[in-house]
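Page 42, continued from yesterday. The earlier attempt failed because a stray header line got pasted into the input along with the sequence. Redoing it now with the clean sequence only.
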Amino acid sequence: MPSENKKRRKSKFSLRKLIYNDKYLIVISIIAAIVIWIATSINLSPETTKSVTVPVTVDFSGTLAEQLGIQYFDSTDITVDVTVSCQRYLARDITADDISASLRTDTVTSAGYQSVQILVAARGNDEFTIESYYPTSVAGLYDVYQEQSFPVELNYTNTDFCADGYVVGTTTLSEEEVLVGGPRTYVSQIDKVEATVSLDSNLTESQLVDLSPVALDASGNQLDYITFENSISANIPILKVENLTPQVNFVNAPVNVQNIVDIDYSVRRVQAGVLESGGDAVLDLGDIDFSTISSGENEFTFNLSALSGIVVLDGTDEITVTVTVPDDFETRNIRVSSNDVTVSVPDGYNARAVSLPDTTITVVGSADALDAISSSNLVLSCDLRREADDLQTGTAEYALSVSVSDAPDVWVYGSYTVSINVTES
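This time it went through. C-alpha coordinates are written below.
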Protein backbone atom coordinates (compact mmCIF):
# COMPACT_ATOMS: atom_id res chain seq x y z
CA MET A 1 0.00 0.00 0.00
CA PRO A 2 2.73 2.53 0.74
CA SER A 3 4.18 1.96 -2.69
CA GLU A 4 0.80 2.62 -4.40
CA ASN A 5 0.33 5.94 -2.56
CA LYS A 6 3.77 6.92 -3.59
CA LYS A 7 2.93 6.31 -7.28
CA ARG A 8 -0.23 8.42 -6.99
CA ARG A 9 1.74 11.30 -5.55
CA LYS A 10 4.24 11.09 -8.41
CA SER A 11 1.61 11.07 -11.18
CA LYS A 12 -0.50 13.92 -9.74
CA PHE A 13 -0.59 16.99 -12.06
CA SER A 14 1.02 20.11 -10.65
CA LEU A 15 0.45 23.52 -12.32
CA ARG A 16 3.22 25.04 -10.25
CA LYS A 17 5.72 22.55 -11.58
CA LEU A 18 4.49 23.16 -15.18
CA ILE A 19 4.89 26.93 -14.82
CA TYR A 20 8.39 26.61 -13.46
CA ASN A 21 9.31 24.10 -16.16
CA ASP A 22 11.28 26.01 -18.83
CA LYS A 23 10.46 23.65 -21.66
CA TYR A 24 6.72 23.81 -21.16
CA LEU A 25 6.82 27.54 -20.64
CA ILE A 26 8.61 28.13 -23.97
CA VAL A 27 6.07 26.04 -25.92
CA ILE A 28 3.10 27.78 -24.31
CA SER A 29 4.61 31.19 -25.01
CA ILE A 30 5.13 30.44 -28.70
CA ILE A 31 1.57 29.18 -29.13
CA ALA A 32 0.14 32.20 -27.37
CA ALA A 33 2.22 34.57 -29.50
CA ILE A 34 1.01 32.96 -32.69
CA VAL A 35 -2.63 33.17 -31.62
CA ILE A 36 -2.28 36.80 -30.64
CA TRP A 37 -0.48 37.65 -33.89
CA ILE A 38 -3.19 36.02 -36.02
CA ALA A 39 -5.98 37.74 -34.12
CA THR A 40 -4.25 41.09 -34.39
CA SER A 41 -3.58 40.65 -38.17
CA ILE A 42 -7.20 39.84 -38.85
CA ASN A 43 -8.75 42.56 -36.75
CA LEU A 44 -6.19 45.31 -36.91
CA SER A 45 -4.49 44.72 -40.34
CA PRO A 46 -3.90 48.03 -42.12
CA GLU A 47 -5.93 48.61 -45.31
CA THR A 48 -4.32 48.76 -48.77
CA THR A 49 -5.37 49.45 -52.37
CA LYS A 50 -5.13 47.24 -55.43
CA SER A 51 -5.64 47.88 -59.16
CA VAL A 52 -7.65 45.30 -61.12
CA THR A 53 -8.22 45.31 -64.89
CA VAL A 54 -11.83 44.34 -65.60
CA PRO A 55 -13.46 43.65 -69.04
CA VAL A 56 -16.48 45.81 -69.83
CA THR A 57 -19.62 44.09 -71.14
CA VAL A 58 -21.95 45.62 -73.73
CA ASP A 59 -25.52 44.40 -73.26
CA PHE A 60 -28.63 45.99 -74.77
CA SER A 61 -31.13 43.58 -73.21
CA GLY A 62 -34.33 45.31 -72.10
CA THR A 63 -33.29 48.73 -73.38
CA LEU A 64 -34.87 51.15 -75.85
CA ALA A 65 -31.82 50.69 -78.07
CA GLU A 66 -32.66 47.00 -78.37
CA GLN A 67 -36.21 47.84 -79.46
CA LEU A 68 -34.86 50.28 -82.07
CA GLY A 69 -32.36 47.70 -83.38
CA ILE A 70 -29.37 49.80 -82.36
CA GLN A 71 -26.02 48.04 -81.95
CA TYR A 72 -22.53 49.04 -80.80
CA PHE A 73 -20.04 49.03 -83.70
CA ASP A 74 -16.70 49.90 -82.12
CA SER A 75 -14.39 47.32 -80.57
CA THR A 76 -16.02 45.39 -77.75
CA ASP A 77 -12.56 44.64 -76.28
CA ILE A 78 -13.04 47.30 -73.61
CA THR A 79 -11.35 47.18 -70.19
CA VAL A 80 -11.43 49.44 -67.17
CA ASP A 81 -8.76 49.78 -64.45
CA VAL A 82 -10.51 49.56 -61.07
CA THR A 83 -8.84 50.59 -57.78
CA VAL A 84 -10.23 48.74 -54.74
CA SER A 85 -9.61 49.26 -51.01
CA CYS A 86 -9.36 46.26 -48.70
CA GLN A 87 -7.43 44.78 -45.80
CA ARG A 88 -3.94 43.79 -46.81
CA TYR A 89 -4.37 40.07 -46.25
CA LEU A 90 -7.37 40.03 -48.69
CA ALA A 91 -5.74 41.96 -51.52
CA ARG A 92 -4.14 39.07 -53.38
CA ASP A 93 -7.44 37.14 -53.56
CA ILE A 94 -9.42 39.90 -55.32
CA THR A 95 -9.67 39.34 -59.11
CA ALA A 96 -11.66 40.66 -62.07
CA ASP A 97 -14.28 37.97 -61.39
CA ASP A 98 -15.22 39.83 -58.19
CA ILE A 99 -16.06 43.03 -60.10
CA SER A 100 -18.65 43.78 -62.80
CA ALA A 101 -18.21 46.51 -65.42
CA SER A 102 -20.74 47.38 -68.12
CA LEU A 103 -21.79 50.20 -70.42
CA ARG A 104 -24.94 52.12 -69.50
CA THR A 105 -26.68 51.14 -72.71
CA ASP A 106 -30.02 52.28 -71.25
CA THR A 107 -28.89 55.85 -72.00
CA VAL A 108 -28.55 55.14 -75.74
CA THR A 109 -31.78 56.31 -77.39
CA SER A 110 -30.63 57.22 -80.89
CA ALA A 111 -28.04 56.34 -83.52
CA GLY A 112 -24.75 58.22 -83.70
CA TYR A 113 -21.27 58.52 -82.26
CA GLN A 114 -21.59 59.15 -78.53
CA SER A 115 -19.88 58.68 -75.17
CA VAL A 116 -21.54 56.25 -72.75
CA GLN A 117 -20.85 55.92 -69.02
CA ILE A 118 -19.24 52.80 -67.55
CA LEU A 119 -20.83 51.26 -64.45
CA VAL A 120 -18.56 49.38 -62.00
CA ALA A 121 -19.70 47.41 -58.95
CA ALA A 122 -18.59 44.59 -56.66
CA ARG A 123 -20.16 41.21 -57.34
CA GLY A 124 -21.81 40.55 -53.96
CA ASN A 125 -18.54 40.94 -52.05
CA ASP A 126 -18.51 43.39 -49.09
CA GLU A 127 -14.90 42.72 -48.08
CA PHE A 128 -13.57 45.48 -50.33
CA THR A 129 -14.76 48.83 -51.64
CA ILE A 130 -14.27 50.42 -55.06
CA GLU A 131 -12.27 53.62 -54.70
CA SER A 132 -12.05 54.70 -58.35
CA TYR A 133 -11.86 53.45 -61.94
CA TYR A 134 -10.67 54.69 -65.30
CA PRO A 135 -11.97 55.32 -67.90
CA THR A 136 -15.37 56.31 -66.63
CA SER A 137 -16.93 56.38 -70.10
CA VAL A 138 -16.27 55.09 -73.62
CA ALA A 139 -17.03 56.81 -76.92
CA GLY A 140 -18.24 54.69 -79.83
CA LEU A 141 -20.63 54.37 -82.76
CA TYR A 142 -24.21 53.26 -82.18
CA ASP A 143 -26.38 52.53 -85.20
CA VAL A 144 -28.81 50.08 -86.82
CA TYR A 145 -27.18 47.12 -88.57
CA GLN A 146 -27.80 46.88 -92.32
CA GLU A 147 -26.79 44.47 -95.09
CA GLN A 148 -26.53 45.08 -98.85
CA SER A 149 -25.01 43.22 -101.79
CA PHE A 150 -22.49 44.79 -104.19
CA PRO A 151 -20.54 43.55 -107.22
CA VAL A 152 -16.77 43.42 -106.71
CA GLU A 153 -14.54 45.44 -109.03
CA LEU A 154 -10.98 44.17 -109.49
CA ASN A 155 -8.03 46.55 -109.40
CA TYR A 156 -4.88 44.97 -110.89
CA THR A 157 -1.60 46.40 -109.64
CA ASN A 158 0.17 44.76 -112.60
CA THR A 159 -1.78 44.32 -115.85
CA ASP A 160 1.13 42.80 -117.81
CA PHE A 161 1.43 39.52 -115.93
CA CYS A 162 1.15 36.97 -118.80
CA ALA A 163 4.22 35.35 -120.37
CA ASP A 164 4.92 35.77 -124.09
CA GLY A 165 2.47 33.70 -126.14
CA TYR A 166 -0.19 33.87 -123.44
CA VAL A 167 -3.16 36.16 -122.79
CA VAL A 168 -5.55 36.61 -119.90
CA GLY A 169 -9.09 35.30 -120.29
CA THR A 170 -12.31 36.48 -118.71
CA THR A 171 -11.97 36.51 -114.94
CA THR A 172 -14.79 34.85 -113.04
CA LEU A 173 -15.69 35.30 -109.38
CA SER A 174 -16.82 32.58 -106.99
CA GLU A 175 -19.79 34.80 -106.08
CA GLU A 176 -21.49 37.35 -108.33
CA GLU A 177 -21.80 39.76 -105.42
CA VAL A 178 -20.42 40.21 -101.93
CA LEU A 179 -22.72 40.77 -98.96
CA VAL A 180 -21.72 43.85 -96.98
CA GLY A 181 -22.78 44.47 -93.39
CA GLY A 182 -22.36 47.39 -91.01
CA PRO A 183 -23.95 50.50 -89.51
CA ARG A 184 -26.67 51.91 -91.74
CA THR A 185 -25.00 55.34 -91.83
CA TYR A 186 -21.86 53.86 -93.38
CA VAL A 187 -23.47 51.23 -95.64
CA SER A 188 -25.54 53.99 -97.25
CA GLN A 189 -22.30 55.77 -98.23
CA ILE A 190 -20.88 52.82 -100.21
CA ASP A 191 -20.30 53.75 -103.85
CA LYS A 192 -18.47 50.55 -104.87
CA VAL A 193 -16.64 47.53 -103.50
CA GLU A 194 -13.13 47.00 -104.81
CA ALA A 195 -10.48 44.31 -104.40
CA THR A 196 -6.82 44.74 -105.30
CA VAL A 197 -5.16 41.87 -107.19
CA SER A 198 -1.38 41.61 -107.32
CA LEU A 199 0.08 38.90 -109.57
CA ASP A 200 3.59 37.79 -110.47
CA SER A 201 4.93 38.35 -113.99
CA ASN A 202 5.44 35.80 -116.81
CA LEU A 203 2.50 33.61 -115.77
CA THR A 204 1.62 30.55 -117.89
CA GLU A 205 -0.98 28.98 -115.60
CA SER A 206 -4.37 30.19 -114.40
CA GLN A 207 -4.54 31.82 -110.98
CA LEU A 208 -7.06 31.42 -108.15
CA VAL A 209 -6.90 34.43 -105.84
CA ASP A 210 -8.69 34.95 -102.53
CA LEU A 211 -9.96 38.53 -102.51
CA SER A 212 -9.87 41.07 -99.68
CA PRO A 213 -12.51 43.59 -100.72
CA VAL A 214 -12.89 47.09 -99.31
CA ALA A 215 -15.87 49.44 -99.41
CA LEU A 216 -15.29 52.89 -100.93
CA ASP A 217 -17.40 56.04 -100.90
CA ALA A 218 -17.95 58.32 -103.91
CA SER A 219 -14.62 60.08 -103.21
CA GLY A 220 -12.69 56.81 -103.17
CA ASN A 221 -12.19 56.80 -99.41
CA GLN A 222 -12.33 53.48 -97.56
CA LEU A 223 -15.25 53.26 -95.16
CA ASP A 224 -14.85 52.07 -91.58
CA TYR A 225 -17.08 49.67 -89.63
CA ILE A 226 -17.81 47.59 -92.79
CA THR A 227 -17.68 43.79 -92.68
CA PHE A 228 -18.03 41.27 -95.50
CA GLU A 229 -20.37 38.39 -94.75
CA ASN A 230 -19.17 35.98 -97.47
CA SER A 231 -15.71 35.16 -98.80
CA ILE A 232 -15.05 35.58 -102.49
CA SER A 233 -12.27 34.47 -104.87
CA ALA A 234 -11.28 35.27 -108.44
CA ASN A 235 -10.38 32.69 -111.09
CA ILE A 236 -8.02 34.40 -113.55
CA PRO A 237 -7.49 32.17 -116.64
CA ILE A 238 -4.12 32.38 -118.40
CA LEU A 239 -4.69 31.28 -122.02
CA LYS A 240 -2.20 30.05 -124.60
CA VAL A 241 -2.37 31.69 -128.03
CA GLU A 242 -3.33 29.11 -130.69
CA ASN A 243 -4.62 28.90 -134.29
CA LEU A 244 -7.91 27.00 -134.09
CA THR A 245 -9.83 25.12 -136.77
CA PRO A 246 -13.64 25.61 -136.49
CA GLN A 247 -15.76 22.49 -136.12
CA VAL A 248 -19.42 21.66 -135.46
CA ASN A 249 -21.08 18.54 -134.06
CA PHE A 250 -24.14 16.98 -135.70
CA VAL A 251 -26.99 15.47 -133.64
CA ASN A 252 -29.86 13.35 -134.96
CA ALA A 253 -27.77 12.92 -138.11
CA PRO A 254 -27.71 9.95 -140.49
CA VAL A 255 -24.85 7.48 -140.17
CA ASN A 256 -23.26 8.51 -143.47
CA VAL A 257 -23.56 12.24 -142.86
CA GLN A 258 -19.98 13.05 -143.93
CA ASN A 259 -20.59 11.29 -147.27
CA ILE A 260 -23.95 12.97 -147.86
CA VAL A 261 -23.50 16.69 -147.21
CA ASP A 262 -20.87 19.36 -147.87
CA ILE A 263 -19.84 21.47 -144.87
CA ASP A 264 -18.32 24.92 -145.42
CA TYR A 265 -17.02 27.38 -142.80
CA SER A 266 -16.90 31.12 -143.48
CA VAL A 267 -13.62 31.27 -141.52
CA ARG A 268 -10.95 28.60 -141.83
CA ARG A 269 -8.74 29.62 -138.92
CA VAL A 270 -9.26 31.60 -135.73
CA GLN A 271 -6.45 32.94 -133.56
CA ALA A 272 -7.50 32.71 -129.93
CA GLY A 273 -6.30 32.10 -126.42
CA VAL A 274 -7.31 28.71 -125.05
CA LEU A 275 -6.97 26.95 -121.74
CA GLU A 276 -5.64 23.68 -123.10
CA SER A 277 -4.38 22.81 -126.55
CA GLY A 278 -2.00 20.60 -128.45
CA GLY A 279 -0.74 22.40 -131.52
CA ASP A 280 -3.43 23.19 -134.10
CA ALA A 281 -6.49 22.75 -131.88
CA VAL A 282 -10.16 22.56 -132.79
CA LEU A 283 -12.59 25.36 -132.05
CA ASP A 284 -15.85 23.65 -131.06
CA LEU A 285 -18.61 25.97 -132.28
CA GLY A 286 -21.52 23.88 -130.99
CA ASP A 287 -24.19 21.48 -132.27
CA ILE A 288 -26.31 21.42 -135.44
CA ASP A 289 -29.50 19.40 -135.17
CA PHE A 290 -30.12 17.50 -138.43
CA SER A 291 -33.85 17.69 -137.80
CA THR A 292 -33.56 21.31 -139.00
CA ILE A 293 -31.76 20.43 -142.27
CA SER A 294 -33.54 19.94 -145.57
CA SER A 295 -32.28 19.63 -149.17
CA GLY A 296 -30.20 22.51 -150.57
CA GLU A 297 -28.17 25.01 -148.56
CA ASN A 298 -28.71 25.34 -144.80
CA GLU A 299 -26.90 28.15 -142.97
CA PHE A 300 -26.10 28.32 -139.25
CA THR A 301 -24.37 31.28 -137.60
CA PHE A 302 -22.34 30.91 -134.40
CA ASN A 303 -21.48 33.91 -132.21
CA LEU A 304 -17.94 33.43 -130.87
CA SER A 305 -18.59 35.68 -127.89
CA ALA A 306 -20.97 33.02 -126.56
CA LEU A 307 -18.16 30.44 -126.39
CA SER A 308 -16.54 29.88 -122.99
CA GLY A 309 -12.90 29.16 -122.29
CA ILE A 310 -11.48 31.15 -125.25
CA VAL A 311 -10.55 34.72 -126.10
CA VAL A 312 -10.64 35.55 -129.83
CA LEU A 313 -7.62 37.64 -130.79
CA ASP A 314 -8.03 38.23 -134.54
CA GLY A 315 -11.32 40.13 -134.43
CA THR A 316 -13.57 37.32 -135.65
CA ASP A 317 -17.05 37.85 -134.18
CA GLU A 318 -19.01 35.02 -135.79
CA ILE A 319 -18.68 32.06 -138.10
CA THR A 320 -21.31 30.89 -140.57
CA VAL A 321 -21.51 27.16 -141.27
CA THR A 322 -23.20 26.12 -144.52
CA VAL A 323 -24.48 22.55 -144.77
CA THR A 324 -25.38 21.66 -148.38
CA VAL A 325 -27.61 18.67 -149.02
CA PRO A 326 -27.68 17.29 -152.62
CA ASP A 327 -30.53 18.69 -154.71
CA ASP A 328 -31.81 15.21 -155.55
CA PHE A 329 -32.67 14.56 -151.93
CA GLU A 330 -36.39 14.69 -151.27
CA THR A 331 -38.81 14.86 -148.35
CA ARG A 332 -41.59 12.37 -147.77
CA ASN A 333 -44.37 12.08 -145.19
CA ILE A 334 -44.91 8.72 -143.51
CA ARG A 335 -48.14 8.10 -141.63
CA VAL A 336 -47.81 6.83 -138.07
CA SER A 337 -50.08 5.99 -135.15
CA SER A 338 -49.98 6.61 -131.44
CA ASN A 339 -49.93 2.83 -131.06
CA ASP A 340 -46.41 2.93 -132.53
CA VAL A 341 -45.09 5.04 -129.62
CA THR A 342 -43.09 3.33 -126.86
CA VAL A 343 -43.40 5.13 -123.50
CA SER A 344 -40.91 4.69 -120.66
CA VAL A 345 -42.08 5.74 -117.17
CA PRO A 346 -40.48 5.97 -113.71
CA ASP A 347 -41.41 3.48 -111.00
CA GLY A 348 -44.90 3.95 -109.61
CA TYR A 349 -46.52 5.12 -112.85
CA ASN A 350 -48.27 3.72 -115.91
CA ALA A 351 -48.54 5.62 -119.20
CA ARG A 352 -49.84 5.21 -122.75
CA ALA A 353 -49.82 7.37 -125.86
CA VAL A 354 -53.38 8.46 -126.66
CA SER A 355 -52.91 10.64 -129.76
CA LEU A 356 -50.43 12.34 -132.09
CA PRO A 357 -51.00 15.99 -133.04
CA ASP A 358 -49.14 15.23 -136.27
CA THR A 359 -50.05 11.88 -137.75
CA THR A 360 -47.27 12.04 -140.34
CA ILE A 361 -43.51 12.17 -139.90
CA THR A 362 -41.40 13.96 -142.52
CA VAL A 363 -38.17 12.27 -143.56
CA VAL A 364 -35.37 13.42 -145.88
CA GLY A 365 -33.30 11.19 -148.18
CA SER A 366 -32.52 10.19 -151.70
CA ALA A 367 -35.43 9.01 -153.83
CA ASP A 368 -34.17 5.42 -153.85
CA ALA A 369 -33.69 5.39 -150.08
CA LEU A 370 -37.14 6.84 -149.46
CA ASP A 371 -38.78 4.24 -151.70
CA ALA A 372 -37.32 1.53 -149.49
CA ILE A 373 -38.62 2.68 -146.14
CA SER A 374 -42.01 2.61 -144.42
CA SER A 375 -43.46 3.30 -141.00
CA SER A 376 -41.75 0.14 -139.75
CA ASN A 377 -38.40 1.94 -140.16
CA LEU A 378 -39.45 4.71 -137.79
CA VAL A 379 -38.75 4.29 -134.09
CA LEU A 380 -41.13 6.45 -132.01
CA SER A 381 -40.48 6.82 -128.29
CA CYS A 382 -41.06 9.07 -125.29
CA ASP A 383 -39.00 8.78 -122.11
CA LEU A 384 -40.88 10.18 -119.11
CA ARG A 385 -38.20 9.05 -116.67
CA ARG A 386 -36.47 12.38 -117.23
CA GLU A 387 -39.68 14.01 -115.95
CA ALA A 388 -39.75 11.95 -112.75
CA ASP A 389 -39.52 14.94 -110.39
CA ASP A 390 -42.30 16.91 -112.11
CA LEU A 391 -44.42 14.10 -113.54
CA GLN A 392 -48.14 14.46 -112.85
CA THR A 393 -51.06 12.19 -113.54
CA GLY A 394 -53.45 13.05 -116.35
CA THR A 395 -53.08 13.72 -120.06
CA ALA A 396 -50.42 16.12 -121.36
CA GLU A 397 -48.15 16.62 -124.39
CA TYR A 398 -44.52 15.57 -124.32
CA ALA A 399 -41.65 15.65 -126.81
CA LEU A 400 -41.65 12.71 -129.23
CA SER A 401 -38.32 11.19 -130.22
CA VAL A 402 -38.20 9.80 -133.78
CA SER A 403 -35.29 7.98 -135.41
CA VAL A 404 -34.81 5.97 -138.59
CA SER A 405 -33.53 2.38 -138.55
CA ASP A 406 -31.95 0.42 -141.39
CA ALA A 407 -31.69 3.51 -143.60
CA PRO A 408 -28.26 5.17 -143.14
CA ASP A 409 -28.94 7.93 -145.70
CA VAL A 410 -32.29 9.07 -144.27
CA TRP A 411 -33.07 11.41 -141.38
CA VAL A 412 -36.16 12.87 -139.68
CA TYR A 413 -37.03 16.49 -140.41
CA GLY A 414 -38.90 18.64 -137.87
CA SER A 415 -39.94 18.21 -134.21
CA TYR A 416 -42.96 16.33 -132.91
CA THR A 417 -45.03 15.83 -129.78
CA VAL A 418 -47.26 13.09 -128.43
CA SER A 419 -50.23 13.23 -126.06
CA ILE A 420 -49.75 10.79 -123.16
CA ASN A 421 -52.04 9.74 -120.33
CA VAL A 422 -50.22 9.09 -117.05
CA THR A 423 -51.70 7.17 -114.11
CA GLU A 424 -50.30 5.90 -110.83
CA SER A 425 -49.65 2.18 -110.73
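Notes: The helical segments are 2-11, 15-19, 22-44, 64-68, 88-91, 184-187, 257-260, 367-371.
Reminder to self: strip header lines before submitting.
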